[in-house]
UniProtKB/TrEMBL annotation:
PANTHER family cross-referenced by the UniProt entry: ATP-DEPENDENT RNA HELICASE DBP3
MF terms in GO: ATP binding; hydrolase activity; nucleic acid binding; RNA helicase activity
Enzyme class: hydrolase
Keywords: ATP-binding, Helicase, Hydrolase, Nucleotide-binding
PROSITE patterns registered for this protein in UniProt: DEAD_ATP_HELICASE, HELICASE_ATP_BIND_1, HELICASE_CTER
Domain Helicase ATP-binding: 1-83
SMART domains, per the entry: HELICc
Native source species: Neogobius melanostomus (round goby)
Keyword Nucleotide-binding listed: yes
Enzyme Commission no: 3.6.4.13
Protein name: RNA helicase
Amino acid sequence: MNVQCHSCIGGTNVGEDIRKLDYGQHVVAGTPGRVFDMIRRRSLRTRAIKMLVLDEADEMLNKGFKEQIYDVYRYLPPILEMTNKFMTDPIRILVNGDKQFFVAVEREEWKFDTLCDLYDTLTITQAVIFCNTKRKVDWLTEKMREANFTVSSMHGDMPQKERESIMKEFRSGARYWSLDVPQVSLIINYDLPNNRELYIHRKGVAINFVKNDDIRILRDIEQYYSTQIDEMPMNG
């Protein structure tokens, strides 16, 4: 299949985007801000666009991209309609098939030992571990390195190129972080997400570390997605 594709992502070289788009592309993927910038510069011409796909649209709308998405939408041909102009009364669906468990952890400081126990008990090839703060990500990375785990960290304060490098190494099996990568065998929520709507984006075989005061959050997630998260069996 001879398809020309290009990605327009904030934090990368604008001149390269302009050059690639002027050459002509069948498919353009990108972040809302950079895509709109290319439209505004007339490097991305919208006249012939046949389809607009919003990947994880709910997440983008919740994270404040609504205005940028609408800016892009205004330049599209009239025949392209958004679903009720950014959705009305959306239905939440959690796809069955993913295994979800929780491990009761009485104290925050016991979580790291619980993590080490998991690695001793389970066969884990590659995994993703989520924390709720950048500071904890950095702390956990150092703790795991001290315990001789092969681990890298990634969060929003890192430059785009560094994040891309970590993703590339992870996919090749050299390192340890990503989302929606086929070889990931396990997802560990070291912290339950602060926003229940983020739970759907942490998909896969998931193990949640849950303190006593997190039980309410866990039940809220279950109710929100009409699912059940059972306590992890002692034998794994």
